Amino acid sequence: MPLTHEEPQIHESAQGPRVTPAASRTAPTPRPVPGPRPAAVPRPGRPGPARPAPPAQRAPQATPGSVPATTPTTPSVSAAVPQIQLIPASAQGALDAAEEAVDLLLDTGRAPGDILVLTTGDLHPWAAHELSFGEAAYWALHDAGDDVFYADAAQVQRAAGRPVVVFAANGGPAEAAATALPVALARAGALLIVCGDPKQINSVLGAGV
User: Fold this and answer.
1) Per-residue b/e over 26-40, b at no fewer than 16 CB within 10 Å?
2) Contact present, 100 and 133 (Cβ < 8 Å)
């Protein structure tokens, strides 16, 4: 029997596994590489993490033979010789002249606590009024140092120094000015204003006036 030429048929069951072309395959999406985590944001009402304190700086140690550096300081007014200003006035007008000097000092910017006023005769009305409340309260105002202070020149030893001292030779014992004026000069840090008789003042302070 003659053989019939037939194309061999390949049944589907005999086919091998299907291979999907590479071009049609969908590549998986790469996952992001985790980086450093951001710092946590503090929640409202809660403080964030405390920042560590910077390390304490150590003071430089001086090497043997070295001289430590120093910051130049401005010399205090008490170290300088105070200026002396004389305002001629009679014993009756010395207190008024002192008052005018204080007003001028305040008008030109001098702080009230910088001024001490001393009288050789009658007390300044302010001092007499404050002493009516007692010595302790009176000197407490002096120690506070925030206002012009009026005192008897005989108590100049008790009064602390101030940049400006106004000395009113308004009477009193003859030796009052001679005793208190040199101390008033020592109490003045920058300026001593003397209101009184020029002859009397010059005899006490000499050529310095």
Assistant:
1) eeeeeeeeeeeeeee
2) no
Give the model confidence (pLDDT) of 186-208 as tens digits: 999 999 999 999 998 988 887 55
153 exposure class (CB count in 10 Å sphere: 0-12, 13-18, 19+): buried
**Inter-residue contact 159 to 149 (CB < 8 Å):** yes
Question: Are the CB atoms for 99 and 127 separated by under 8 Å?
Answer: no
Each residue of 93-114: pLDDT tens digit? 999 999 999 999 999 999 999 9
Provide the 10 A C-beta neighbour count for residue 186.
14
87: β partners: 195
Instruction: Give the integer Cα–Cα distance in Å for 130 and 66.
Output: 57
